[in-house]
Write a structure and sequence with these properties.
single chain, about 190 residues, alpha+beta, Hemagglutinin Ectodomain, Chain B, Nucleotide Exchange Factor Grpe, Chain A, domain 2, 2 domains, three-stranded antiparallel beta sheet, three-stranded mixed beta sheet, 4 helices
């Protein structure tokens, strides 16, 4: 009951002539401030809102320009990194190409020396591959793994176990866990 009585007293205080007079004074002060060009407490003027809008628009435009510059810069950095990595790989293979050119220009009739030179070039080529982090895989006797091997033929062989590689047609290569080329193999059933 006490709550209802308090609410009734509040309503009476709001609806009294004094409360009405106070409300009328507030409205008159608001209108006077508006006519005089002064600031009012309750509502911002249009110029202030336009300034805030212009400021927010400026921030958005700057952020968009900053993002566009970031996107262009990272794209350019990627291209430069790709070009530098290509140059690095090519420079590693230049000595191999030089030795291959020397072997091709050799006119000697000694076939054994020529064969030995080509073997040395092959070894230099594989060493360069290893230096770059590439490794070969897919040898006869390895267990077949469909993630890195491509089986193109099946055969029956009692000497080798099931799912063993019996022949390699093309070696596979990988760098770390990334397969560059799958090994093409023959698998025992």
């Amino acid at each position: 009951m006490a709550k209802k009585e308090k609410e009734k007293e509040k309503e009476k205080a709001i609806n009294t002539p004094e409360a009405d007079a106070e409300e009328t004074e507030k409205k008159a002060a608001f209108e006077e401030g508006d006519k005089a060009g002064g600031e009012t407490v309750g509502e911002p003027d249009a110029e202030e809102l336009l300034n805030k809008l212009a400021c927010a628009n400026d921030k958005i435009m700057r952020l968009a320009a900053e993002y566009d510059n970031y996107r262009k810069r990272t794209s350019k950095e990627k291209e430069e990194l790709y070009a530098a990595s290509k140059l690095s790989v090519i420079s590693e293979f230049l000595p191999v190409i030089d030795n291959l050119d020397r072997a091709l220009s050799n006119k000697s009739d000694n076939l054994d020396e020529y064969k030995k030179g080509v073997e040395m070039i092959g070894n230099q080529f594989y060493e360069t591959f290893k230096k770059l982090g590439a490794e070969e895989f897919g040898r006869p006797g390895d267990i077949f793994d469909p993630e890195i091997h491509n089986a193109v033929m099946h055969t029956d062989d009692e000497d080798l176990g099931e799912n063993m590689i019996s022949a390699v047609f093309t070696k596979g290569y990988k760098v770390g866990d990334k397969v560059i080329r799958h090994a093409v193999v023959q698998v025992v059933n």
